[in-house]
Amino acid sequence: MLKRASWRLVALLVLVCVLAGCSHAPQQRTLSVSELVKAINDTGARGQQIRTSAIVTYIDPDWRVLFVQDQSAAIYIDLPRGAVAQSGDRVEITAVLSGHGTGLEQVRISVLNKNNALPPAVAVSNYSDLPASLSSLVEAEGTVRWTGVKRGRPAIELSSGDKALTSYLRQALIEDLPPIGSRVNIAGVAAADVDSNGRLSGTKLFVPSTQYIRVLNAGPADPFSLPLKTLADLNSISAGTLVHVSGPVLTTPWFGPSRKGLIALRPCPRH
Q: Confidence band (pLDDT; 50, 70, 90) for 254?
């Protein structure tokens, strides 16, 4: 009788556990972005479910890139297929910390609200300092030395001293880009260029639209309207300055880099 009662008690406890959910689902951790960055680098946290919310600073569904930022930090996330958001959206992100060292998997994104102000951009005076601000919204100043299409995106190449920086715009018309020679301030997300071995080879900016470009001093509509300089004058002109020079063409490209920047060439009639 006692044995039968014991089995009944065990069966009752099993039933109670099933109804109460004794096999608990994995607990979801709510993290700030800075805590999420630390958790991604913590091998002991892999496999945990996480949740965070932040402001979208840049998104490109075609390139499947997403950058978000809160008051603590910024992070890059591989954009899931079908995810829809815009810069300025506050989104909630749920995911599982990857066990393969790739960051996050099973990522889901939902928009909480829209038209939020982007976080303040960090001013970067030296392009060499950009790697310290990867994934964050920054602003950089420079002289426009080239505009056009690069990797399928409208792009602007800036120069500051002897350094260059390329900015890719998600939404822009070529005719709306500032003229060559303009002094501009551009706000965008600092992103990494990596080589085939996964090593950092440079940095670039991802810019949502031309609204994030501020023209400080517009360049000439026609670069060849600038006063004519001799080739000898280039030695006394600051790097990054747009110049108009005349001389024999020794190489064939119409546009080519000089020691101090980019020179635009056009043929002149023989005299």
A: very low
